[in-house]
């Protein structure tokens, strides 16, 4: 599992080793770190959902990152309106539990085949 999650933690590892960007003020740096963490929650959720295999801990991590991302929308993007897509993304957890990784049930291959048949 550690090999599959390397993309999720690469940035955190770089930051912990002091390779981050310096900012003029501590408040700007803190705000940008919060925005980065918020963005990484979405990226982490997508990476987890698209893995080749799926475990219970990966499904729970998906739900955790998605919850964190959605709850941070109003903080980091105050003009954002919650939409149905945000709600529907939580149902992906149920589908991961029922059908396994997204790769085993997404429709891209079928859409491509239909395009070729037309």
Task: Walk me through what this model shows.
This protein has helices at residues 6-16, 26-49, 56-76, 84-99, 108-117. The chain is elongated. 8% of the residues are buried. The chain has one domain. The model is unreliable at 1-11 (pLDDT under 50). The chain is mainly α and 118 residues long. Helix 2 (26-49) runs antiparallel to helix 3 (56-76). It is built from five helices and no strands.
SSE topology sketch:
Elements: H1 6-16, H2 26-49, H3 56-76, H4 84-99, H5 108-117
Helix pairs in contact: 2-3, 3-4
State the low-pLDDT regions, or none.
1-11
Largest beta sheet, briefly? none
Number of helices: 5
Proportion in helices: 55-70%
Strand content: under 5%
Task: Decide which structural class fits the backbone.
Answer: mainly alpha
Question: How do you describe this structure in short?
Answer:
The chain is an all-alpha fold and 118 residues long.
Keywords summarizing the entry:
mainly alpha, elongated, 118 residues
């Amino acid at each position: 599992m550690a090999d599959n999650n390397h993309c999720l933690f690469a940035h955190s590892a770089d930051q912990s080793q002091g390779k981050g960007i310096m900012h003029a003020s501590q408040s700007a740096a803190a705000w940008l770190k919060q925005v980065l963490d918020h963005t990484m929650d979405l990226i982490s959720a997508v990476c987890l959902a698209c893995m080749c295999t799926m475990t219970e801990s990966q499904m729970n991590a998906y739900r955790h990152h998605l919850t964190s991302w959605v709850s941070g929308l109003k903080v980091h993007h105050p003009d954002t309106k919650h939409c149905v897509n945000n709600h529907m993304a939580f149902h992906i957890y149920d589908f991961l539990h029922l059908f396994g990784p997204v790769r085993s049930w997404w429709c891209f291959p079928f859409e491509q085949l239909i395009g070729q048949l037309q």
